[in-house]
Amino acid sequence: MAASFALRLDLAGRHLAAPPAPLDAFAGRIEAAFGVKRLASTYAGPCLRVRRASDNGQLDIGFAGESLDAAALLAFVGGASAYVVAWYDQTGNGRHAVQTSAAAQPRLVEAGVPELGANGGAALAFDGGDDYLEIGGSTGLARNAGAFTAAAVLGVATIGPGSIQQLFYAPTTSVSVARIALQLVPPGGTYYYARPADSGASPISISRSRGTARRLIGRARLSAGQIDVATDGAITTGPLNAALPTADADGGSLARIGAPTSGGSNRFQGSLQALVLSRQPLDIAALDGALARIAA
Fold first, then answer.
1. Above 90 in pLDDT, residue 263?
2. For the Alpha-L-arabinofuranosidase B catalytic domain, which residue ranges apply (predicted)?
């Protein structure tokens, strides 16, 4: 009797591994990462904490799949408006972006309707007036850094003539050091490079008008005296006004999202879906690919 062999494929019992999250390739090299999507596979916490305006109740909202749990958000908010109390850092470093003042909280839902980014996904809406978040554990974030990378997915509401909007800002100790910020300048404006003697200077600056969701990356290679700015993957490289060994940051002031200070002008107006910060000169092409996944 001849022996017989059978090969059975048990496809139903197999499970396909989940694809890596957008920032998995940068694990250990990012200081803080905020998003309305899950950015790191290792992150198991909530996306953000919201406050509903109807009774000032608060709730942590997590993810449904890889995106913000819109159903849970709207079930909590109902027909009210909702604002962001905390945007959780997904790196595990605990640098959560927080705003305890109700008047200064970015909006997430307006009268029961979610705020949307330029790509149609959930987004934080900054009004350009008094909205901003402070990043916990960020004092001295850029201090003694030979390089710094800041990247964002955003939609710009408006940039008026002569105005400058600060998307990310790390306060400095002195005007005599390189400043770290991710700022937008008016359409047709120039790129701002580091100006160590200029109190209004910033080594990372991006010029872009309103439109579809934008992927913006600023990378300061301070020890090399270079600045790299990428807008939707298109890279511009130029020299710093003066090559400096490091940037500096105030050891007593928190870095901010949406404003340079707790008062004053130059505030961001538009939608924000992700912000990524690193003290390393991250590869721009790879980082832009990650931002494209977040913006999709």
1. no
2. 32-105
> Across 67-194, where does the E strand assignment appear?
67-68, 82-87, 97-98, 107-110, 113-114, 124-127, 133-135, 147-156, 165-170, 180-185
Residue type, 76: F
**Rounded CA gap, 23 and 38, in Å?**
9
- Write down the pTM of the prediction: 0.87
Contact status, residue 111 vs residue 79, Cβ threshold 8 Å: yes
Q: How far is CA 234 from the centre of its chain?
A: 19
Write down the pLDDT at residue 141: 84
Reduced 3-state DSSP string for 201-254: CCCCEEECCCCCCEEEEEEEEHHHCEEEEEECCEEEEEECCCCCCCECCCCCCC
Closest of 169, 148, 146 to residue 256, by C-alpha: 169
Options 2.60.120.1440, 3.90.79.10, 2.60.120.200, 3.40.50.620; CATH of 26-295: 2.60.120.200
Place of tokens 């700015």: 229
Which of 124, 170, 173, 122 is CA-nearest to residue 150? 170
Domain residue ranges of the chain, discontinuous segments joined by +:
26-295
Q: For residue 282, what are its two tokens? A: 């991250």
CB 23 within 8 A of CB 290: yes
- What is the mean pLDDT of the segment spanning 123-141? 92
257 by DSSP, 3-state: which?
strand
Q: Which two tokens stand for residue 194?
A: 């580091």
Any idea what DSSP says for residue 4? -
The encoded tokens of residue 241 equal 């006004």
| Residue 226 identity (one-letter amino acid) | Q
Residue 182 has pLDDT above 80, yes or no: yes
